[in-house]
Amino acid sequence: MITPIFFFILIPMIVGLWAQMKVKSAYGKYVQVPSRGHITGREAAQAVMASAGIQDVEIVECHGTLTDHYDPTNKRLALSQDNYRGTSLAALGVAAHEAGHAIQHKQEYAPLNLRMSLVPITGFASQFLPVIMFGGFFFGFGAITINLGIAVYLVLTVFQLVTLPVEFDASKRAKAQLVGLGIIDQDELVGVNKTLDAAAYTYVAAFVSSLGWLLYFLASRR
C-alpha cells in the first residue's frame, strides 16, 4: 500500500528535482548560444519596458546564477551577471521575462496584485516551517503540529497557485515582445521557448510540492 508520505511528499520532491535539472540543462545550453543581434539582456529588458512606456524602473546587476527578479516595491529589475551583460538567447529570454513583470505591474495585472498582497502573510507563514519540520520529526506530528502545518501549507499553496499565471503571462509577453521588437528572429525563439518553458516547470513543481505537503497534513489529521 502506498503511504501518504510517499504519494504526497516524495513524488513532488522527485518532480521538483526533475524540474531543477530541466531548467539548468536548458539554461546551460542556450546561455552558450549568442543571439544574432548581439543585444545584451539589459538592453532587451530596457527595450521591452520602453515599448510599454515604462521609464521609471531601474535595471541593476545582481550576483548569482538565475537570481533574476523584478522588485515591484522599489521598481527595480535585477539581472544576474550572465543575463545582464550576456547576449545569449537564454539571457534575452530571462531579461524579457522579468521586464514582463514590470509591464504587469504597470498595467495592474490582477494575479500580480493578488500575489503582492499575499507576500506578507506568506512570509509570516514561512517562518513556522522550521517549527513544523523539527517539531514533527523530533517530537512527532501531534494535533497542534498538524493543524499548524495545514494552516501554513494552505497559505503557501495558494501563493504558489497564484504565482503560476503571473509567471506564465510574463513568459508569454517576453516571447511576443522579443520577436515583435526585432530583438531576435523568429527561428531564434526556439531557444527562448525552451529556456522559459523549463523555468516554468520549477513554478509548477513548487506548487505541487506545497500541495503535496498540505494533502499530507490533511491526511494525517485524525
Automatic annotation (TrEMBL):
Keywords carried by this UniProt record: Membrane, Transmembrane, Transmembrane helix
UniProt cross-references to Pfam families, sorted A to Z: Zn_peptidase_2 (PF04298)
PANTHER family the UniProt entry points to: MEMBRANE PROTEASE YUGP-RELATED (PTHR36434:SF1)
Protein name: Zinc metallopeptidase
Entries under InterPro entries matching the protein: Zn_peptidase_2
Keyword Ubl conjugation: no
Keyword Flavoprotein attached: no
Transmembrane segments: 6-23, 131-156, 198-219
